[in-house]
Amino acid sequence: MKNILLFTIFILLSSLVFGQATIVLTNTSNIDRNNEVVEIPWNTILSKYNNIDTSALVIINKKTKAPIVYQYEYKGTKVIQHLLVQVSISAHTNIAIQLVKGTRPIFETKTYCRFVPERKDDFAWENDKIAFRMYGKALEQTPNENAYGTDVWSKRTKKMIINEWYKTNNYHEDNGDGLDYYHVGYFLGAGDIAPYSKDSIWYPKNYSSWKVLDNGPLRSSFELSYDTWNIDGDAVSLIKSISLDAGAQLNKVSVVYSFNKNQPLPLAIGISRRADAGTMYLDEQKGVLGYWEPTHGKDGTIGVACIIPSIKNKMTLTKGHLLSIVQSNSNQPLIYYKGATWDKAGDILSASDWFNYLKAFNVKIASPILIH
Length: 372
Fold this sequence. Notes:
By secondary structure, this protein is mostly beta strands. The protein has 2 domains: 2-101, Sandwich (Immunoglobulin-like); 111-367, Beta-galactosidase, Chain A, domain 5. It contains 4 helices and 25 strands.
């Protein structure tokens, strides 16, 4: 209690001496937004607090005086693009946050990504819920190990496990924090994307270059580039950007295909389908593609999903996948969401839990937190 009182007094004195800014965040949706990462345009911050010192900033909940975790997002540039804050806002309510000068806190890392040259050019990323990886050029030299799509690492700990698991090289067994048992192979895996022509998926080879854009504590993002490949006689290239927020089961994906055709390029966004029965959820109208896999023995059950908002799409079961067929013009970003969950993590325990999570996530996409 004494420490909280001293912290509150410090904040009040800082605001009097150095100035402050107040920003109101409003949840207009009918669902609670718990521990959601909200991005506030940096120009909005500067318009309210033009003498801000980014090296000495404290952010608090104006009502409770509780400190708020934040991150500056650069998106691969040298200039701040957004202020990211992690907040909880009940349905149809708002909160006010205050920015004041003070000693910048050190926050717990909740997201992380990196290139993994020691494991054949993997690129791996994670948050406090789940982990993923994609495969680089080196893996193409071992066809019996190679894979195309997105891999899932099932975890049941909030700590970051990528470095530890790669170091021990024993992540196919559950040693308490989870394991990698998801099978990708020559499929799209957990929500990857590829051109679709003549009823066939035209896979690129593995990514050829990478770039980290931001790396925690609340959001990690990176960019993967692919060598040009042939799609039914036409040359196509691809840049894929992926970001993962703390507390989220789904990544945000932006893909830019470049090609010479004047007509749109058909694309397949897909989830690998298992031989045994699982539970599927396909909502073409709202763009939600969900899959609760068959239980994998003692390893438990993985749920996988894609959400493709605001895009006309057709969903189908074919080529060993649950597929959503969409179209994109050359050099135009296409945005969708992909991700996974694991029942042994203890948060989402059934197919109905998973599909309800996806429906709520879709509401959040459609109704972003208002900033004023």
